């Protein structure tokens, strides 16, 4: 025999394939061995063969009623079939397979007990052949138990390996998921920063919009200030005064440049009769007014840009291509003759600036731009108040009519025409300022009259 067992010293499991014995790692082995010990509490006895007629009742399989096993004797005797069933059972992780394994173990222990008793029986009377046969049977049953033990350890090891692999796969999956969460968190942080920046931009845009709305509201209020008859009357007086204010420096420059004012006044109004020499200044005002209102067509347009600035030069510089800028350019070239500008300043820089689309910030041009502003507002606000608003003028030689006309002399508080009889004796020499009709309201035309 290749291997023998000392029943008093313990069992040594043969390892036919020289495979390393797998050490148990579970407490289940201790439980099974404990159960084995309870079953295998053998006593040393001596018996005669005549006293033991049969021992087959000790080899009755414990699991012979199990539906999986057809022949219990083949299971206890043939190791290969039991091994095959065990392999099949190990592949199924269920309670039935576990119960089947336990029954096989107890059946093998029962067979071992029977073999041990047969070994004792072979000693009395001493029969060497029976002793060897019984000993082989004991060894076979012990090998079977060791085989069950190895398979159990292998199964536990395989389960541990599978569990570790499952844990590693789960950890890898969770690490991948954690990486995705970190990436999503980073994306969310970037999105939060972007939204914060967008919110700041929106706040700045809202503030700019609020300022713009306030500015537009202010412009509308200023523009709406001329959209009433009362306000229009104020604009009319402002335009008349601005013409008078621009005529003063124009006359002063003519006088300083050596111009003959009498000849100049005669060139403007050839046949006019003046009550006194100083009244010739009205001829120059009439000259300016005729050119400023020449070709004017009453139409409604936006006055906000020009009304928002106290200094019209600011509006011209801010928007040099506006309709008001074109109006200033056209009217300056019409009012200020090239000869006048050259004699006034010794050059024609104003003209050159204006022709190039720019506007000089000189005192002379500022007075002109202020006058142009009020004339521009006057003609632009009439139709805004009344779509049927009209502008009218008075021809030379017309009889003075107090309903439509106003003498320039009345500005100084002197009434040259006291009653209807006196009024019929006065004729219009020339018109200084045209009149306007808005609804039922008339802005009288300012005229210079003389007694016929």
TrEMBL record:
The keyword Coiled coil applies. Keywords: Coiled coil. Residues 392-448 form the GIL1/IRKI C-terminal domain. Residues 101-212 form the DUF641 domain. Signal peptide: none annotated. It holds the Pfam family GIL1_IRKI_C. InterPro entries: DUF641_pln, GIL1-like, GIL1_IRKI_C. One of its GO terms (biological process) is negative gravitropism. The keyword Coiled coil applies. Residues 178-212 form a coiled coil. This is Protein GRAVITROPIC IN THE LIGHT 1.
